[in-house]
Design a protein that fits this description.
With about 200 residues, the chain is α/β, with parallel strands linked by helices. The chain has a single domain, classed as Glycogen Phosphorylase B (Rossmann fold, 3-Layer(aba) Sandwich). Helices cover about 35% and strands about 10% of the residues. The chain contains 6 helices and 6 strands, in the order E-H-E-H-E-E-H-H-E-H-E-H. Helix 1 crosses helix 6.
Length: about 200
């Protein structure tokens, strides 16, 4: 029987058992988020602790009803849940969507606002660079300690890049899960401090 979602804190850094539900809906995408999801999921499985578990959640709504995970990880902004039953980690690859005119026109901008609200409810967000970290803080109002920079793995066909493997990415991501479990409360998001990214004017 699966353990119930844990919303209580624990000592940060303590290696308690962690069960992670990983949103796997994007793995079929051959590029972009799909490649990131496939590579990270495989590496997370390879680097899991003896008592840790990672399960694929291709239907996050079922997760919400079952409350069967300690941490939920969405590897893309579109997968963030408005009402996650447990601490949620979201990977933000970039914030280009916030600048696209089509996103502001879609449903009168409601889709964009709901997605941003869901992401803002994440306990922590993972970003690939310091630049994206700064944009997430400015546009979405995150506290800096809630934004974790974990670079993507180096591409194997680019020998000039320093070696940073998916195993490295996975180990840092497991550490992010433990931070989320240790600090399950929602981040402080204050609209007065947000500085929206430049975006196209919508007539």
């Amino acid at each position: 029987m699966l353990t119930q979602c844990s919303c209580g804190g624990s000592s940060e850094g303590a290696h308690h058992r962690v069960k992670v539900a990983f949103d796997s809906r994007a793995v079929s995408d051959p590029d972009g988020v799909g490649r990131y999801s496939r590579c990270l999921l495989a590496a997370l499985q390879d680097t899991a602790g003896s008592e840790d578990e990672i399960v694929e959640a291709d239907r996050p709504s079922v997760l919400a009803r079952s409350r069967s995970a300690d941490v939920f990880h969405s590897p893309w902004m579109d997968g963030a849940m408005l009402h996650s039953p447990c601490p949620m980690v979201v990977t933000i690859h970039d914030l280009a969507a916030l600048k696209r005119r089509s996103e502001h026109l879609r449903g009168g901008g409601m889709h964009l606002r709901l997605r941003n609200l869901a992401v803002q409810r994440a306990t922590h967000v993972i970003v690939p660079t310091d630049v994206v970290a700064g944009e997430a803080i400015a546009a979405l109002g995150f506290e800096r300690e809630r934004v974790i920079v974990i670079p993507h793995a180096s591409h194997p066909t680019v020998p000039t890049q320093p070696t940073w493997t998916w195993e490295n990415v996975a180990r840092e991501t497991w550490a992010a899960y433990r931070r989320a479990l240790a600090q399950p409360h929602r981040p402080c998001v204050t609209g007065s401090k947000r500085r929206p990214l430049s975006k196209p004017r919508v007539a």
